[in-house]
Specification:
Blueprint lengths: L1 E7 L2 E5 L4 E4 L6 E2 L7 E3 L4 E2 L9 E4 L9 H4 L8 E4 L4 H10 L3 E4 L5 E3 L2 E5 L18 E5 L5 E4 L7 H8 L7 E5 L18 H19 L5 E5 L3 E2 L16 H11 L4 E4 L5 E5 L2 E6 L6 E2 L31 H17 L4 H6 L11 E10 L4 E8 L4 E4 L4 H4 E8 H8 L14 E4 L9 H9 L5 H14 L11
Helix pairs in contact: 2-11, 4-5, 6-9
Length: about 475
């Protein structure tokens, strides 16, 4: 028998009689320290690490901190081998070594045997599909050597026909397929973004297309398990729980189940265990795992859509509102590097595709409005493509420039220096504008991802990881090796 237990967000535990594999585990209720966001696992769960099964190995599909979480990894016995995406940064490998783990690279297309479990990672299609900053993410296929069952997950990568063909080469039919819902509503950041009221229907269509591709090319899976979006906010950010999460996973699965009455579509919750035998799904057991359960839905943070009359003001992620004098020079140097990195990117292409009469008297570029100090002071920089530089801009930036972003100067500098990931700015810590949103794609975060990704700034990210490790170095490794 092969069983898999959903741990929350995108974490999974696979077990046979002789092997136990963890994939992307979040073993702490709060995570996201790399972004200074401190999400909480959603739905809430009761995790008893003292009753956790002994683990044969851990697979980390990529380096994003909802999959690669230093405080969670600190709870693992150092005798447990770690298999890390070979395309993750040297910073990720180095911190795991410093923590005392034996690290093995996980290469796309190369099967790894962990006892009687076989894990085959795949690669994303980064040529014909926009996978964002998921450059090191490895979709994966798990099966047991005895043929009891299998499990296929694209993680955060877009499914293509090629992926289905790769998976089909590993097994004649699928048993469990994990489907990721990463849809979020960013309308709280910008007046020009409409609230995503059709996201559940859109997700239903997208998952239906994926299901059809898998069924036609590989066979109908015994069950599709919907996961991800498995975090919530608390404290002064709790209002975002009713603005950011725009897809009802259960509703999507119910709609698909009506179309395909002989198949299962399940919105996962922590503690669910899926047991497979003979290449089939034999049973789904709720809260059967002694180490993990989910409390009553009545206790979960509400995700019921709600209007927020006034979006609250935001504090800096760094906790500091004013730049030090030396940091002003560092900001200028960082902006110079950022300006150079924009050449040939999405914003650059958009600016060079504009007609002058389309911008209605505005300067045809974007600006950065960086808040600084306690008195409402701002530092404004406009991007000048012909100089490949940022220059001091006009104070009335929103009225003067085609597009722009406002955030705290300390936060923006931290992102440029690789001390924070860009997503730290997205959840309530920035405001955007775009006077030509129908004709100009202002993908500022996509550009920042390229600028400050761990693959570009491994030394800076290593320092961030080392700070996190120092904060939890005294944590007991309660999850033991098998």
């Amino acid at each position: 028998m092969l069983s898999t237990t959903f741990l929350g967000h995108q974490g999974w535990l696979f077990q046979t009689k002789t092997s136990c594999l963890l994939v992307d585990p979040l073993l702490c209720e709060e995570f996201g320290q790399t972004q200074a966001l401190e999400y909480r696992v959603y739905p809430p769960r009761i995790l008893r690490t003292d009753q956790f099964p002994k683990v044969s190995a851990v697979v980390l599909s990529h380096e994003h901190d909802d999959h690669f979480d230093i405080p969670s990894l600190a709870k693992l016995d150092r005798a447990i081998p770690i298999f890390l995406s070979a395309r993750s940064s040297s910073a990720a490998r180095q911190i795991l070594h410093e923590m005392g783990f034996q690290v093995h690279p996980l290469y796309p297309g190369r099967k790894v045997e962990i006892g009687d479990l076989e894990v085959t990672p795949f690669a994303g299609d980064h040529v014909t599909v926009d996978c964002g900053d998921e450059w090191d993410t490895l979709p994966f296929f798990v099966r047991d050597a005895g043929g009891a069952g299998n499990f296929f997950s694209m993680v955060d990568i877009t499914l293509t026909e090629g992926h289905v063909e790769w998976a089909r080469a590993r097994a004649s039919r699928p048993v469990l397929v994990s489907w990721t819902n990463n849809a979020l509503d960013w309308s709280h950041m910008a007046d020009y973004l409409a609230e995503r009221v059709d996201a559940t229907q859109d997700c239903f269509v997208k998952m239906g297309v994926g299901h059809k591709l898998i069924s036609m090319k590989w066979g109908a899976p015994a069950a599709m398990l919907m996961c991800a979006g498995g975090f919530s906010f608390h404290g002064d950010k709790a209002w975002m729980n009713q603005r950011v999460f725009c897809v009802d996973n259960a509703a999507v699965c119910q709609m698909l189940a009506k179309l395909y009455r002989d198949e299962k579509f399940l919105a996962t919750r922590p503690g669910q265990t899926f047991q497979m035998e003979g290449g089939r799904l034999k049973r789904v057991v709720e809260d059967a795992a002694p180490f993990l359960s989910t409390p009553s839905p009545a206790t979960w943070p509400s995700r019921a859509r709600a209007e927020v009359a006034t979006i609250p003001d935001y504090a800096p992620a760094t906790g500091r509102r004013a730049l030090e004098e030396a940091e002003r020079e560092q900001l200028k140097a960082g902006l110079s590097e950022f300006a150079a990195s924009l050449v040939g990117g999405t914003i650059w292409k958009g600016l060079h595709s504009l007609l002058e009469d389309a911008v209605e008297g505005r300067t045809p570029t974007f600006a950065l409005v960086l808040r600084h100090g306690a008195d409402g002071e701002t530092l404004v920089y406009e991007y000048v493509p012909s100089e490949c530089a940022f220059r001091p801009g006009k104070a009335a930036a929103r009225e003067s420039y085609l597009a722009g972003m406002e955030c705290w100067a300390t936060d923006f500098l931290a992102v440029l220096r690789g001390e924070l990931g860009p997503i730290a700015l997205t959840f309530g810590r920035a405001r955007l504008w775009n006077a030509l949103s129908a004709g100009f794609r202002f993908d500022i975060f996509g550009e920042l991802y390229r600028m400050s990704h761990p693959l570009r700034r491994p030394a800076e990210y290593l320092r961030t990881y080392q700070r996190q490790w120092a904060q939890c170095a005294g944590v007991d490794a309660t999850i033991r090796a098998r």
